[in-house]
Design a protein that fits this description.
Layout lengths: L13 H14 L12 H24 L4 H23 L13 H31 L4 H7 L1 H4 L1 H16 L2 H21 L7 H27 L6 H30 L5 H27 L4 H10 L24 H8 L3 H4 L37
Helix pairs in contact: 2-3, 2-10, 4-5, 4-8, 4-9, 4-10, 4-11, 7-9, 8-9, 8-11, 9-10, 10-11
Length: 382
């Protein structure tokens, strides 16, 4: 923020949030999931575990990775998340059915977003400082120049999301991470003391296009892998992993930066920036492996077409749903009738008493498939 304190960045979105809250109350219809009760134990365990795992990298730059505080937070976080996983296996109505992670589309897409956000948020943290400390631009000038990178999702993501309906999600997740890794690696190689902004435009644009290719296709893959009534659970899991990845990304790159450079001068900042950005590129490249393991469009279509008997991962243990596990729904035909992707539309029948209105959550990401909501029959209420 130029001209006022940097803390104002946390208040910029408050008016937007207030307007969104009012419009949501007026324009959105109510929806409910299939679970008759909240998984309070799972909520507490997951919240405390993620808090501890977030606390560790946030405090590491000041306290040190080897400090009792950081190690204790990591151990506590791991123990709490282990308890969460154990509880979810036997909970009557689990907050996150662990069986979803056996679905290749769900597991690989979540891995992709975790690696991507380690690389993305860590890079964003240092690239904004590169323009100001390393190149001498004002905050406003730096923000305008970084648009060649961060504006790409607005331009490319809708196109990638539309094309993914035709070619599948895997090519875009795979190609996106390759471009992100290549662009950030090129940026790391190009940055030196006295580098011009023009020399950084191309690598920033390439990395930005790669990021934009992943955003909608990861969302499509995650939400398309679960029953429509659990789209919110899938999106929440994905959001938690990208937030956790972002925290670790800043911490990891900050540690690399501190080991090679400092904020003492532009030259020392550049000395730390280059190896940190190489690490960011390497993390994005590691995510390519997860993207390559994602199912192809043909495999996804075959699975959707052949899956005429669906087992509900929650009702298998939930009281009052003894017969739900054998509930058979011929949902592929329903998907064809609406013209929607059977991998998403067909999932509407996966949960007994599912609420098709929740399908609208599939459009949370820019460029995600708008036709997911087509699975809801006209006039269906929440």
């Amino acid at each position: 923020m130029q001209g006022i304190s940097w803390q104002w960045i946390f208040w910029v979105n408050v008016p937007v949030g207030l307007v969104a809250a009012v419009l949501s109350a007026l324009r959105l219809r109510e929806s409910r999931g299939p679970r008759p009760q909240l998984d309070i134990v799972g909520l507490v365990l997951a919240g405390a575990g993620l808090f501890a795992l977030t606390w560790a990298p946030v405090r590491a730059p000041a306290a040190g990775w080897g400090s009792a505080e950081v190690i204790g937070a990591i151990v506590a976080g791991a123990a709490l998340m282990g308890g969460f996983l154990a509880w979810e296996r036997r909970a009557p109505y689990p907050m996150l059915p662990l069986g979803y992670f056996r679905r290749r589309a769900f597991a690989t897409a979540n891995a992709v977003i975790f690696f991507q956000f380690i690389s993305l948020i860590g890079s964003l943290f240092f690239i904004t400082q590169l323009f100001q400390i390393g190149m001498g631009y004002s905050p406003l000038a730096a923000g305008l120049r970084i648009l060649v990178w961060m504006a790409m999702p607005m331009l490319v993501a809708p196109i990638a999301g539309a094309l993914a309906d035709r070619f599948g999600n895997r090519p875009f997740m795979l190609g996106g991470l390759v471009l992100q890794a290549a662009g950030l690696g090129w940026l790391a190689a190009a940055v030196q003391r006295g580098v011009s902004y023009a020399a950084l435009v191309a690598p920033l644009m390439i990395a930005g296009v790669g990021i934009a290719m992943c955003f909608p296709t990861v969302a499509n893959a995650v939400t398309g892998a679960v029953p429509i009534s659990d789209v919110g659970v899938a999106a929440g899991t994905n959001n938690a992993l990208n937030a956790l990845g972002g925290v670790f990304g800043i911490a990891i790159l900050a540690a690399v930066f501190a080991a090679h450079g400092s904020y003492a001068s532009p030259a020392s900042f550049v000395a730390g920036f280059k190896p940190a950005e190489w690490v960011a590129a390497a993390v994005a490249a590691a995510g390519v492996v997860a993207a390559a393991l994602a199912p192809s469009r043909a495999a996804t279509s075959r699975a959707a077409a052949g899956k005429r008997s669906v087992t509900d991962p929650v009702s298998r243990v939930g009281p009052g749903h003894a017969n739900d596990a054998t509930d058979t729904r011929a949902h592929s035909a329903g998907a064809a009738a609406t013209g929607a992707d059977p991998a998403i539309a067909g999932a509407a029948a996966d949960w007994p008493g599912s609420r098709p209105a929740i399908a609208g959550a599939a459009a949370d990401w820019p460029g995600s498939r708008p036709d997911a909501s087509a699975a809801a029959p006209p006039g269906t209420g929440a």
